[in-house]
Design a protein that fits this description.
Blueprint lengths: L2 H14 L3 H11 E8 L6 E2 L1 H15 L4 E5 L4 E3 L2 E10 L5 E11 L5 E10 L11 H4 L6 H16 L5
Parallel strand pairs: 1-7
Antiparallel strand pairs: 1-2, 3-5, 4-5, 5-6, 6-7
Length: 163
């Protein structure tokens, strides 16, 4: 696999990677140092550390619940842009639980400077019933990040996320 879909495969694999050190290294290889990752319902994440922490949190939310991510193998682009679709599947049944797409902006070296994520179908995971981020991944977040994530999780408890 070469080109755009190869980059997307590395991006997908990053979310599924079980080894924290490998996941962090992959973030650092794929993303420019001050890259921005913007997703639905949260403030943008800026820089390797913030992106790594969000990817790690997502990993701890979905992978233990037997979800997996797959590319739709439809990466397209022009200039320094790549657009692609992905799905999140429930492992036991293989049913599609979430559908989304991302637009990546690349620098001259081919690293991601911006990642804009869109959701076409939100997951059925009951986000409002999840443990707080610092309980899912103890020791990963600073006190300020814990406070910010707790506000988000409390908001999900009050009103489940919708598109």
């Amino acid at each position: 696999m070469t080109g755009r879909n190869a980059l997307v495969k590395r991006w997908i694999d990053m979310w599924l990677e079980p080894d924290d050190a490998v996941r962090r290294k992959t973030v650092e290889e794929l993303f420019a140092p001050q890259a921005v990752y913007s997703m639905f319902n949260l403030d943008p994440f800026v820089g390797h550390d913030a992106i790594y922490k969000q990817v790690t949190l997502a990993h701890h939310i979905y992978v233990p619940r037997d979800y997996t991510f797959r590319s739709q193998n439809n990466a397209t682009g022009h200039h320094n842009l790549i657009r692609f679709g992905w799905v999140m599947l429930f492992g036991e049944s293989g049913e599609t639980d979430m559908i989304g797409s991302d637009v990546l902006v690349l620098d001259e070296a081919g690293r991601i400077t911006a990642d804009y994520q869109f959701h076409d179908k939100l997951s059925s995971v009951p986000y409002g019933e999840l443990p707080y981020a610092d309980e899912l991944v103890p020791g990963l977040f600073t006190p300020d990040e814990v406070a910010a994530y707790r506000k988000v999780f409390d908001r999900f408890r009050a009103t489940p996320p919708r598109i």
